[in-house]
Amino acid sequence: MDKKKIIIETLKREVVPAMGCTEPVAVALAASKAKEVLSEDDIKEVSILVSPNIYKNGLCVGIPNTDEVGLYIAGALGIVAGKSEKDLRVLEGIKDSEVLSAKKMLENDVLKLDIKDTDEKIYIEVFVRGKKGSARVIVKERHNKFVYIEKDNEVLFKEEQNKNGGGYNEVLKELYSLRIRDIIKAIEKIDYKDIEFLLEGIDMNEKIAKAAIEKTYGIGVGAGFYENIKNGVMADDFINNAMMLTAAGADARMSGLNMPVMSSNGSGNNGLTAILPLVAYKNIYDVDEEKLSKALAISHIINGYIKYYIGRLSPLCGCGVAAATGASAAIAWLMGADYDKIDGTIKNMIANISGMICDGAKVGCALKLATSAATAIQSAILAINGRIVPPRNGIVAETAEDTIKNLGMLGQDGMNITDRVILSIMQKMEKAV
């Protein structure tokens, strides 16, 4: 097993730019693909089915280039103007006239969207019918993974399920069965030029965060921290700057600001949380680009490691329990922690915010991201000072790996009813509007 090669391949797949919240973007991507397969402009019917988790995460977020929120307008924009070759940047460059056309499609009741009864966390099915024919596409497992394409009832593509594994899923299984310290040792030996591309995420995510500090978006969590730091109410220190930047990124993204973010493991907010605390670190402390790129690799890979066990979409807040834990381990590494203390950092994080729920993507996520960024730094500092939660303390186990697996059992098995209750509450409030 070539650890370095697998890590580089995983980073190139999982750390990619995204425009807008990933769930609406994925719906737009699937819709655009269906329209392209149909090859007709006069669309008579669009029917979209999404998994409960896609519905939950896409219900309340702003869509770039519009004043709208949610999956309906995203699906309509995918039909009207989306180009699937843009992948998760499918909503980039949408024009005002195209937004008007998408709104007209919704007004004319052309597009229907419903929740599919499925255990799949990521599932989007789009059926389109025109004057001459029809097309159907299905996205599953990852937000941009097409597993089924059909035109006029003829199957053009169908991913064959390999019972014995194989492909990228097998790569992930192999990578995330390793000890975290062995993954970090491999990252330390990777040539800088092979992961230099990760630095693009620093520039991209810092830019969107700064935009939301200069102007209030959402509820203005990042801008609020900035005002209080400027006025001397809050200290101008590492933790508060990390909170400010990370919250501001979420303020902008959840409001639908027309700027891309660097995502991590299928989530733009995960990308903000995995990267922006490290931006706060490099803005305060002296760190060269090679070391920063390796810290980014640690952050993204540990985010992926935890999401492998809790699921890419989960009842748990992936930003808090996965991406922030990745950032925390990376910060500990930057601060000179040994492997035992990096393990301790992960244990501290999971002991602290393992109960943070995901109740959908929305402007209020900025508060959770701020909390997660602060906890990431606190957990690293405490571990470096030898303050580590002991094993058999709640779900904390002897090792970081077993602690993550316990977290996975909590998220995958223990909180399914929680997910259903959250969705039920959200639907009830939506109907009341």
From TrEMBL:
Question: Entry's PANTHER family?
Answer: UPF0597 PROTEIN YHAM
Which family does the record claim for this protein? Belongs to the UPF0597 family.
| InterPro entries named in the record | Ser_deHydtase-like_asu, UPF0597
* Occurrences of domain Serine dehydratase-like alpha subunit (ranges): 86-423
Q: One Pfam family, short name please? A: SDH_alpha
Name of the molecule in the record: UPF0597 protein SAMN02745883_01710
Listed GO molecular functions? L-cysteine desulfhydrase activity
Q: Which domain of life is it from?
A: Bacteria
Provide the GO biological process annotations. L-cysteine catabolic process to pyruvate
Q: Which HAMAP family does this entry report, sorted A to Z?
A: UPF0597 (MF_01845)
